[in-house]
Amino acid sequence: MVDFLLTLDKVSYSYTNGRDFSFEDVNVNISPNTITSILGRNGAGKTTLLLIMLGFLKPTGGTVNYFPDGINGFLSRGNNSVAFLPQSESAPEKILVVDYLLMGRTPYIAPFILPGNKDFELVQKYAELVEVDHLLHYQIGKISGGELQRVRICRALVQESDLILLDEPISHLDLNAKFSMMEMIKHLQSLGKTIIFTTHDPVEALDIADHALIISNDQQINFGLTQDVITEKNLTACFNIPIKISRNKSGFACVVEKIV
Amino acid sequence: MKSEKKYLIILILLIILVLFAAITGRYQGIGSYVELSENQLLQRLIIQVRIPRIMMSIIVGAGLAISGLVMQTVFQNSLAEPGVLGISQAAGFGAALGFLLFPWTRIPIQFLSFASGILALLLVLKISEKIKGADRVSLIFAGIAVSALFSAGLGIIKYVADPLDQLPSIVFWLLGGLSTSSWSSVLQITPIAVVSIIVLYLLRWRINVYALNDSVLYSLGIRRKVEVYLILGFAVLLTTSIISFSGLVGWIGLIIPNITRIIFGYDLRSSLPGSILIGAIFVLVSDTLSRILIAGEIPLGIITAFLGAMFFIFLIIGKGSPLSKNG
Amino acid sequence: MIRKTVLIVIILVMLGGCINQEANNTGIVISDALEREISLPKNLDRIVIAGKQTPTLANFAYLFDSSAEKVIAIENRSQSSNNFLSLLDTNFISKLTIEKGAGAEQISPADPDVVILMTSMKEQIGDQLESVGITPVYVSFETIEEIYRDIRIFGTLLDGVETAEKIVDFYSNTKNEIDQLISSSKTSPRVLILQIDKSEGNLVYSVPSASWLQTAMVEELMGQPVWKAEASAGGWMEISIEQVFVWQPEIVIVVNYQGRSVEIINEITNNPVWSEFLNNSKTMINPFAYDYQSWDQPDPRWILGYANLAHYLHPEIISTTFLYDLVRDFYHDLYGLEIEFIDSEIIPLVQLQIE
């Protein structure tokens, strides 16, 4: 049993996005079967950090390590691939849902081969699990935003990877879709998956994440258990306005404290 | 209607058209099958002249259609095709250069044509990266620039370097034609074309996946750079080997994939084989028209442009146009 | 009284003489191919030949002795006549100073008195030249009548008015002789003039324009030009090999501007399609003769082409001997070459027969 699924060891990364950013000496340990949220303002570098965790962006210093097979593990077929859902995807709108889901099986299908029965069966199984099986023969462009999100999560499931990275999966949804997506992410955890997602809303982190990572304005990283990291003090520093956290039976709320 | 049934219908149509084209020509025209057994000249015409030409037109149609389909899918842009991206023009340029420098053998012509095509592809990719703003349009802008560059290059070769008029006329390069088809040309072009088509056919499902973002492809284990260059490389090879023989025959890579998608959908598992058949039919019909309508030969490019432009207008203004939101 | 009158008469005569002298010195007037009336000074020393088809124009110009002096620059187009024209003018090659496609800017440094152009060059070059004060003279050489007219124009420009008449006489006499001879013939064969180009191993077939000299010559010789009805009005029209057989020609004459007609004929007689056709139809296939140039074009050698065609169409009347004698007369009378030279250098070049 491994202690950590993914670690960042003294990772540093510089980039320019209008202004110069750099991450220095980032140390993060992701435990298996946990939900971690990456919290920060828009433009703070959340997506960048996620892409570094994916391996798509290479750090300029330090190492990103995957267990048990190391960094090359997920390049090969099998459970060690990392599933990734970007913020917005350029899927052609006229592709059928079932064909889109099949793309999740790519790590298991050699280049000159076509998807086989096993792949179709798995797509069916996971579509039922996520309750999108009735949408399989619809075009991607014809389903609703909430349904599309579920379909995309389904693709991550079809990929059968242990680690799932989500870029702002909840942020743009309306309230009821938000709720079902958060339920979905917890459901993924119950299936044994490890999830890392980015958000600019601390409530999402407070509601479902075990661990949290806050990116402050000067790219300082604060990582740890959610209750330790997401405090009123840290949030206020991060967002530059006074924030109060309150909790009731149903969940958390974050409120901007007005100066009267 | 299931895909298999559609294939069958279109395949039967193709076979009928092939037979029709074989017995049709300026000499003895249609309905001459009655004479077939007695007229030796007609038999030889059919075997030595018409059949190689029919085969070339099928290869040209299938090859350019697949090339366009692959480029449209990889670039996620339904206006992409070798002609729009300047690759066809580069192929013509390279072939003309090969003609001029090595008139005694065909191999350098094919090679230079391919090298120019790859160069054009790299230029288009590099230039479009530098253009700010809408991704989709930047590719087209880059293509306009590159195609103008190589067209001009072709003009320069023809005008400056060819005072003895050794090269085929520039009209031929710009409008294309299959009138010089023979069994030897079939033997020269077919191996490369067929190999390229087979490779792309085997990769047809994989190419679908390129619709997704680069980061997603990475997560799915696709080493994008290598694979994309391989796929595009074969598409360029296919295009250049065809154009170095037939001259610039345009519109096929643009129109046929769009028509194919209307009939077969967006999945390359069905649209790639579909575009082979439909492309073949389109060029077969065009080329047959080009050699029977009048006593003279009408350049093939004129007919494909005419038919292609009509389809294009229909495509962009028709309802449910696939060009509206392709993604 | 009488002395005064005589004085006045003498003065008047002298004045008249002066006026006459003046008139003589005001130069020449030409009506060119575009029916422009052009006044030019009498002694033109600097004549430039430019635009398309300069080899044709040069070949015609060098029918006149004064060309070696008066023609100072020529646009450099096809190389094929260079060997021949160098025989007549040792400085010929050095006169090819104007680049292909030159405009007024490149031509004016030569400081021409007049520039000879084909009529098709008016918009492209001629108008430009006029706007910078250089006079173009247009010729066309497209039909037999135009050839005669344009030779006379050249005669006026090149100070060879009498020579021009001699040349026109040579042409018209020869043509009349041939026409007379063949008038007794009863045959009116179906003729196809076919240009066959060989580019990298593949043959490209084309037929001449309906309005060109080749077509007219066939008709004058009582042949039927099978391509005329369907030929284009513009230039050479490409056809497929099938069309050749549709037209069912009795005589096929192969033109090739690289001088490879004989080679090409030998090749196609081995081709399965052609051999089938030739075996079954008794069609004769011949090369259009070629010495330094193909004889089928509007070129001084057109009359040789005319005789060549007459020989193919009516072989029992016009023999090869007639043809070779005509070649000798042509180069001797019109270009002033020695008979020994013609026999040793030119006759062997003439590709007339296939082995």
What does this structure look like?
The complex is a heterotrimer of chains A (260), B (327) and C (355). Chain A is α/β, with parallel strands linked by helices and 260 residues long. Chain A has helices at residues 46-54, 97-102, 117-129, 145-158, 175-190, 202-208, 226-229, 232-239; strands at residues 6-17, 19-30, 35-39, 61-66, 82-85, 163-166, 194-199, 211-215, 221-225, 243-247, 252-256. Chain A folds into two domains: 1-81 and 161-232, P-loop containing nucleotide triphosphate hydrolases (Rossmann fold), CATH 3.40.50.300; 90-160, no CATH class. In chain A, the strands form three sheets. Chain A has a six-stranded mixed sheet, with helices on both faces. Chain A has a three-stranded antiparallel sheet with strand order 2-1-4, with no helix packed on it. In chain A, strands 10-11 form a two-stranded antiparallel sheet. In chain B, α3 (40-74) packs antiparallel against α11, α4 packs parallel to α6 (135-160) and α4 (87-101) packs across α11 (224-246). Chain B has a single domain (3-8, 50-315), classed as ABC transporter involved in vitamin B12 uptake, BtuC. Chain B is mainly α and 327 residues long. The radius of gyration of chain B is 20 Å and the shape is globular. Chain C folds into two domains: 28-172, Nitrogenase molybdenum iron protein domain (Rossmann fold), CATH 3.40.50.1980; 187-349, Rossmann fold. Chain C contains 15 helices and twelve strands. The chains are: A alpha/beta (260), B mainly alpha (327), C alpha/beta (355).
